[in-house]
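Incident review: delayed structure delivery

Summary: a single-chain prediction request sat in the queue longer than the usual turnaround. Root cause was a stuck worker, restarted by the on-call engineer. No data loss occurred. The affected request and its eventual output are reproduced below so the record is complete for anyone auditing the incident later.

Affected input:
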Amino acid sequence: MLHILLHFAVPLVVAIAFFHKNWKSAFAFMVATMLVDLDHLLATPIYDPTRCSIGFHPLHTWPFILVYVGLFLAPWAWKPAPARQKLVRTLHHVGVGLLIHMGLDALDCLG
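Output delivered after worker restart:
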C-alpha cells in the first residue's frame, strides 16, 4: 500500500517543488504515467509481491527506460519553435513521471 501511495506522493512533491508555475498539469502527466503498469497484465500471475518489475515487465526494461530518459531530456535536447514548447514540456513531465515510477519500482527490487 505504501508503494502505491508513493506513486502519487512523490510526483506531487516533485511537481510542486520543480514545476510550481504549472504544478497541476505536471502532476497530472506524472500520475498518468502509472498507465505504464498495464504491462503487468501480460504476466502470470498478474501480481506477485516478490517479483522485481524492473527488467521483467516489457515497459520496465532498460531499452524503454532509456526512452524515458530521452523524454526527460527533451527540453535540453530539442530547442523547438515557440509553438512546440508546450509539447516539449509535456514530454519532459511524462519523462519525469516515468523515471520516478521506475525508481520507485526499483526500490522494490532491493528487498
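Verification: The chain has a mean pLDDT of 93.
Action items: add queue-age alerting; document worker restart procedure.
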